[in-house]
Design brief:
2 copies of one chain form a homodimer. Chain A has 10 helices and 10 strands. Chain A has about 300 residues and is of the alpha+beta class. Chain A has a 7-stranded antiparallel β-sheet with strand order 1-2-3-4-5-6-9. Helices cover about 45% and strands about 25% of the residues of chain A. The first copy, chain A, has one domain: 3-Layer(aba) Sandwich (oxygen-dependent coproporphyrinogen oxidase). Chains A and B meet through α7, α8 and β10 of A and α7, α8 and β10 of B. β10 of chain A pairs antiparallel with β10 of chain B.
């Protein structure tokens, strides 16, 4: 058991460092101007991370592709807030958020992580995978939503065709601003957590999902990056980015857990959009392109069945 | 007891509606262009509020001066999150946040509120006042900080000279981004809560503090509103506004309580700044005017003793 887990830790750890390289290369290439800058940081209790951030690019106004590998004692806060049992833990993952400049190019988020819990003797007493990917457009292109979901479905289907519908639903239910009449952050994707008991399967799933990130996102970026936009489009993008901030700071478990357990603030908050607008009671005109986007956030759709 | 409480509810209620008028008039006058717009909203469980919002003014980019008067059953969430006992409640208060356009004019927040708890028979079993006022400059003018604090001190001193030092400390400890090495939101002010047992005294205190709001804030606005600013000043203001968002959405008890108990979202989030910037790991140059402000946020000062 320990040997097998060791192998999974290592295989997944190598995979996400590679994926980080690949994703950064892919995004830099399409951006054409800005480069990712890496900060290595050490965690006080054990481990650390490689934060890579791109800013003020041609295509990407701000984005981060972070890998962390942390370990240590289970703190009181972790016990209370995450309901974690055990003596010490190991956690590794890749987490990315990309905020494009052009309001016709969607924001994207993805995260794949692996967690192990140990007793005092160092025996693994629990382990699981978690993660997902979701898209946050400012203007709706149904073909883009369909493409993104199809890619994720194809990745999930390799493990089990029952997974995509479940993970899609979980995503629609999770990335929601409950304080805004359950308005979703975007057009969803997949979200899964606490995948236990079949570590090789879930490792395979996480890799398959990681592998489709660029094929799911880059074609959409390519297609939309030359779309002309004006100040009104930018205004709407910044209003929606406000909702992104609200979700991440008020509801997102990962963000709050990181901030309240002395995670590295700058790495956690790289997810926040570069420029944001909070307007009192702003409502897009009924029937407008802006309203169309809002309606699919209020009423999640099945993008594949149509 | 009931009669006396009734009187306090009514007197305070009338006072804050008047104060709302007075503050809106004072701010409109100095703005010279924008006017407050009022939305009346009803709370599902009982009561409602008058939200007044100003936007896109000459001087004030966004601001709200809200009064609410709500009542109803104590919900499970209230019991759990506020540790409230009893059968039903009454709460009324004024809450304002003003975000000026010019980065040399500080943002200001003030809030004065009164709470009553009842048993099943409608007998008052607990009641208290809370509130405060604090200033969030983007550039430090020590004379402004001193003026603001002196006004608040003069108001507190009317009730008891022991209050200002205590409330000042409480403010410095409360408006803090714990996830940013305990960086304060601004240069503080006063904060008090759960003032019980001497309702007439605390009513007097709340009124005295409310009365000094305009004298504390307007002279600072007058003095700074013509200061020329450029894109760099605006950039820094928007970075600091990001911290304001972080505090309000991650730490502020009132905001989170409102959002999680189905308060009126637009009235609660009127506190968020109009335009905001989140830059990865931005540090102002050591010794710059921007850094000077940051240093007093990291190391709160006694503005009156100097």
């Amino acid at each position: 058991m320990i040997k097998q887990q060791q192998a999974i830790k290592e295989v997944f750890g190598k995979y996400i460092r590679n994926l980080q390289d690949e994703i950064c290369r892919g995004l830099e290439k399409i951006d054409g101007a800005a480069k990712f800058k890496q900060d290595y940081w050490k965690r006080e209790g054990g481990g650390g991370g490689w934060s890579r951030v791109i800013q003020h690019g041609n295509v990407f106004e701000k984005g981060g592709v972070n890998v962390s590998e942390v370990n240590g004692k289970i703190s009181e806060t972790m016990r209370r807030q995450l309901a974690l049992d055990g003596d010490h833990f190991f956690a590794t993952g890749i987490s990315l958020v990309i905020h494009p400049l052009n309001p016709f190019v969607p924001t994207v988020h993805a995260n794949f992580r692996y967690f192990e819990l140990y007793d005092e003797k160092g025996e693994v007493i629990d382990s699981w995978f978690g993660g997902g990917a979701d898209l946050t457009p400012y203007y709706l292109f149904e073909e883009d939503a369909r493409h993104f979901h199809l890619q994720l479905k194809s990745a999930c289907d390799k493990t089990d065709t029952a997974l995509y519908p479940e993970f899609k639903k979980h995503c629609d239910e999770y990335f929601v601003n409950r304080h805004r009449q359950n308005e979703a952050r975007g057009i969803g994707g997949i979200f899964f957590d606490y995948l236990r008991g079949r570590p090789e399967s879930w490792l395979g799933l996480a890799r398959d999902c990681g592998d489709v990130f660029l094929p799911a996102y880059l074609p959409i970026v390519e297609k939309r990056l030359k779309t002309e936009f004006n100040a009104d489009h930018k205004f709407w993008q910044e209003i929606r980015r406000g909702r992104y901030v609200e979700f991440n700071l008020v509801h997102d478990r990962g963000t709050l857990f990181g901030l309240k357990t002395n995670g590295r603030t700058e790495s956690i908050l790289m997810s926040l959009p570069p420029t944001v607008r909070f307007e009192y009671d702003y409502q897009p005109p009924a029937g407008s392109e802006e309203d169309k986007l809002l309606q699919v956030c209020l009423h999640p759709r099945d993008w594949i069945q149509g």
